[in-house]
Amino acid sequence: MKASSDDVKKLREITGAGMMVAKKALEEAENFEAARVLLRKKGQATLAKKSTRAAKEGLIVSYVHAGGKVGVLLELNCETDFVARNEEFKKLADELALQIAAVNPSFISREEVPQDMVEKEKEIYLEQIKDKPENVRAKIVEGKLDKFYEEVCLLEQVWVRDQDKKIKDLIAEQVNKLGENIQVRRFTRFALGSQ
User: Fold this and answer.
1) Per-residue pLDDT reduced to its tens digit, 66-121
2) Are residues 158 and 141 in the same domain?
3) What is the dihedral of CA 32, 19, 40, 36, to 10 degrees?
4) C-alpha distances in Å from residue 3, one per residue of 38, 39, 180
5) In 3-state terms, what secondary structure has residue 156?
6) Is the Cβ–Cβ distance between 58 and 27 less than 8 Å?
7) Which of 30, 165, 174, 190 could form a disulfide with 71 if both were Cys (CB 3.0 to 4.6 A apart)?
8) Which residues have CB under 8 Å from 102's CB, separation 6+?
9) What is the pTM of this model?
10) Structural domain total, the chain
11) 143 with 61: CB under 8 angstroms?
């Protein structure tokens, strides 16, 4: 696709990618949406590369929902205090806290879900589909487990502000933009009257 300056500008605004990166994605892709998807994939690859680097700086942010009935404390880590003071990083932390308040995940990632909980879910799903043919059961269970992870894992959840994007994609975009490893370290959600 030929990359017009308007398309480059629009893609940069949506993804936060640099000018040359956005231009190259547009040239490689068949259309604008394909370029956007390409940049998201590159963001995931960048995240995988940077995920091994130590992230010991960052922020602790709080969010209290209107009415004061739900609150969140979140620790979001990055590699340097320079990025921790960056407005984009602060905005990401605020968005993640809002997501936690709204959707109430129990874990950060799939890896944190206890194996006995996963096995119990599999048992339930197998019982629900016992009448299905043997050759499709594994695929059905896998699909149901993916849905389960989307409900209980922050990184797997669909972002409340953009149904086409998961939280892990949002973080990957910021890793791509800021050039550092970014990790959700921990969070706590408080709801009035719950334990």
Assistant:
1) 788 999 999 999 988 899 999 999 999 999 999 999 999 999 999 999 999 999 99
2) no
3) -10
4) 14, 15, 28
5) helix
6) no
7) 190
8) 160
9) 0.71
10) 3
11) no
Q: Phi-psi category of 121—alpha, beta or left, where left has phi over 0 and alpha has psi -120 to 50?
A: alpha
Which domain covers residue 102, as residue numbers? 57-109+153-191
Backbone angle region of 177, left / alpha / beta, with phi > 0 → left and psi within -120 to 50 → alpha? alpha
**Residue 18 and residue 26: Cα distance in Å, rounded?**
12
| Pair 175, 48: CB distance under 8 Å | no
What CATH number did the domain enclosing 36 receive?
Answer: 1.10.8.10
Task: Mark whether 143 and 74 lie in a shared domain.
Answer: no
Same domain, 87 and 18: no
Residues 72 and 160 in one domain: yes
Give me the percent of the chain exceeding a pLDDT of 70.
85
Residue identified by tokens 């394909």 is 34
Q: Which amino acid appears at position 166 of this protein?
A: K
Contacts of 28 (CB under 8 A, 6+ apart): 35, 38
Quick check: 145 and 120 in contact, CB under 8 A? no
In 3D space, the residue among 62, 83, 88 whose CA is nearest the CA of residue 73 turns out to be 62
Helix (H) or strand (E) holding 178: helix 167-178
Spatial separation of the C-alpha atoms in residues 40 and 48, rounded to whole Å: 13
